[in-house]
Specification:
This protein is mainly β. It is built from no helices and 13 strands. It is globular, with a radius of gyration of 14 Å. The relative contact order is 0.18.
């Protein structure tokens, strides 16, 4: 599938695409300004991490490529791809209940911890992209 060769790309629809799970060594790009915030991405085959204004946003183990990530006060949505199943951690509002949808299927509800982190597993196939939606209940 398509990795993000420039490591982070600002999309016309206001979303962000980032990551390259095909890289053999850790690569980063920082100081990318978008909508008044500064973004930094670190990515390679073992991990992909996105930060906004020095704060954690997204992390996957192993590395992934994320397309069209949009976040708001109500949640986050994106399309992810990778070579193998991934554990994804998102930074959301602390101690809040969210509905999760993976690949268009309801994956149930989950509450963030006191730090606002929510972790989910996504089954990935190198030949397909998987949509993920996390929204407040």
């Amino acid at each position: 599938m398509a990795v993000i060769n420039e490591l982070i790309r600002l999309e016309a629809d206001g979303s962000i695409s980032f990551g390259d799970y095909s890289l053999g060594q850790k690569t980063k790009k920082d100081n990318v300004e978008f909508n008044g915030s500064i973004y930094k991405v670190k990515t390679f085959n073992e991990i992909t991490k996105l930060e906004r204004d020095g704060m954690f946003v997204y992390e996957s183990v192993p590395g992934t490529t994320v397309n069209n990530l949009k976040s708001s006060g109500e949640g986050v949505e994106f399309v992810v791809e990778g070579n193998e199943d991934a554990q994804i951690t998102l930074e959301l509002e602390p101690d809040t209940l969210y509905n999760i949808s993976v690949g268009g299927k309801d994956a149930g509800g989950m509450k963030t911890n006191l730090g606002g982190k929510l972790s989910l597993s996504v089954e990935l196939d190198p030949e397909a992209q998987v949509s993920v939606s996390v929204s407040k209940q």
